[in-house]
Write a structure and sequence with these properties.
Number of strands: 10
Protein name: Branched-chain amino acid transport system permease protein
Structural class: alpha/beta
Helix content: 25-40%
Largest sheet: 6 strands, mixed
Organism: Blastococcus saxobsidens
Bound molecules: adenosine-5'-triphosphate
Subcellular location: Cell membrane
Amino acid sequence: PAGDTVVALAGLGKEYGGVHAVRGVDLEIRAGEVVGLIGPNGAGKTTLVNMISGLVPPSSGSATVLGAEIGRTPVHRIAAAGVSRTFQHSKLFNRLSALENVLVGAHLVSRPTFLRRLLWLPSARRDESAALRQAARCLERVGLAELAASRAEALSYGDQRRLEIARALASDPSLLILDEPAAGMNHVEARRLSELITSLAQDGLTILFIEHNVGMVLRTCTRVVVLNFGEVIASGAPAEIASDPAVVEAYLGSA
Ligand code: ATP
């Protein structure tokens, strides 16, 4: 059964001084889908997810994400609507513990909490312990409960990447966007990541991720979208995509 529309893109484009990074993209993502975005280097994948997460305004077309209109909605409002993401390059705080890194994602010190804390009201401490419990749940969700007190820099590479996902979960998103989550992972770590993504989707999250590890994409996604020169050249179930001649020529063949 198809879920509600989470992302709706119509003719979405982004131009950088004459370079069409993304051009005429029509795409709908429904609740509960796990969509993998693949394509050669420079195909426009990062630009597309940057637009969807509200970081980069489109030059043409229209897009709504969880009801928010991209290009007219400030990025923090898009986050508040339920969009959360990780980045291609780790943005962890190395010297903070795993738990503290997740708390950063939970925006622990919201403005009302800050004011209440200034006034020394007990509700501020209540909010804090709720945030701690929520952060601990996020760590547990990605299998890092035992490492909550370890510094981020002491975690293995695969654990660091999962910690980034835990942090992205801390804001309790509906749409989770992952930018090359398996990059640099070994085979075992990538498999474990696949299982995590699948189980997050089973919990009702919608997931969009960019990934170069095609095997991982094909076994994890419900749908694969292929970009080439800024345009969608194919979109379909993993098995369809793997045998699509245009995809094989543009991407899989050279991978
Ligand atoms: P990769 O897999 O290497 O990360 P990608 O598919 O994510 O590539 P983008 O990074 O979105 O591709 O880039 C698409 C095109 O847009 C490229 O030609 C790139 O040089 C160009 N581009 C992206 N961002 C900018 C920018 N800020 N200014 C100018 N050109 C840009």
